[in-house]
Amino acid sequence: MKAILEGAGSGLEHIVKVTVYLTNMARDFGIFNEVYAEFFRDVGVLPARTCIGVAALPMGAFVEVECVAELAPGD
């Protein structure tokens, strides 16, 4: 996510909203919160987030993350 945003001339600080899909909320929600906080530690503010429990994800994944971000000002 960071590399994609930087490639577009933006960055983690420009994320507006994150949507997370977890296949096992009971097992993964707590650890995901820890990883999420660490990932955005240097940004200073955690982006708004929705976390949704799903039955399955493609290719057997346990987690999927999508985000909406703005381009850096002036772009």
TrEMBL record:
Pfam family membership, one: Ribonuc_L-PSP
Any Gene Ontology CC annotation: mitochondrion
InterPro entries in the record: RutC-like_sf (IPR035959), YjgF/YER057c/UK114 (IPR006175)
Gene Ontology molecular function, alphabetical: deaminase activity
Source superkingdom: Eukaryota
Similarity comment: Belongs to the RutC family.
Name of the molecule in the record: Endoribonuclease L-PSP/chorismate mutase-like protein
Species per Swiss-Prot/TrEMBL record: Boletus edulis BED1
